[in-house]
């Protein structure tokens, strides 16, 4: 008689709860827990430079996660996400500087204020689609940036606004080693929240609108309501990320948060995979680490045969900006589902190995 198999054959999901579980297997859950535990040890082994890179990946992944709700799960588009990121940064700095509220509470309050503004812009944008929607979100970007430049009482105008260090109940966290755990906690909370949101009725409604809005409307889904909601959710996570960024840098300026930053947020979800929560983190890590890789390549090529043949000279540093555009085009052409899809294929291959199907 054959003994019990260590790895059961087939798919034994027999309930809806099992089909919508966060972790499909015990192994994947254990690897996720082990990964979080290893990240908790990162400040003990990584230098300040690499801790700064990890903190940036965490902050930007929260902002990209919100954009993925709007673009990847609802099928909308936004090229004004950076403005909401900056609004969250200025709001949290303003609250913590002018009210007796610790930074710990100022960050979620900034997220709520940003979500409210996102809902205001989302109401007219929810009735648009295609090119008109792109122009509407671009208008939101410029409206907010103009507000920041004029509202000196709120943003400091041309002078960067200062932000307090992260504090809770009188205890202040300073330095990358301590702030890393703050960002890690917000990343875990945000990704768990969105993962569970997509398993709810509202999450399935967003996906239904993305897949076929006419069928969703026939099924009784209020398109305007859920499209507006997606704008609010995207703005909420952008505001949380912006607040974290403000209290990490301790100074907030609108420099560097124009349309090019919004395009970078779009690049993160395109490269990682639209409609994939795990892909959001992968795409963010890719985009943040790309300049580091290009810096190494630029340094390697500088003064070499390629540099002399193409007469790059000082323009060789612009290879980083060129590379981002080329990579976005390459992913849209050859890997439209992003890194997350490629990772799923790799997992499926090893799961079925040595069989081909």
**What spatial order of strands do you see in the largest sheet?**
1-4
Radius of gyration: 22 Å
Shape: globular
SSE pattern, N- to C-terminal: HHHHHHHHEEEHHHHEHHHHH
Question: Which percent bin holds the helix content?
Answer: over 70%
Strand content: under 5%
Seen as an oligomer or otherwise, the chain set is single chain
Q: Label the structural class.
A: mainly alpha
How far apart are the termini? 27 Å
Main sheet attributes: strand count, strand direction, barrel closure: 2 strands, antiparallel
Low-confidence runs: none
Overview of this protein structure:
It comes from Bradyrhizobium stylosanthis. Its main location: membrane. GO terms for molecular function: branched-chain amino acid transmembrane transporter activity. InterPro entries: ABC_transp_permease (IPR001851), LivM-like (IPR043428). It holds the Pfam family BPD_transp_2. This protein is mainly α. It has a domain of 236 residues. Helix content is 72%, strand content 2%. It has 17 helices and four strands. It has a two-stranded antiparallel ribbon with strand order 1-4. The chain has a two-stranded antiparallel ribbon with strand order 2-3. It is globular, with a radius of gyration of 22 Å. The two termini are 27 Å apart.
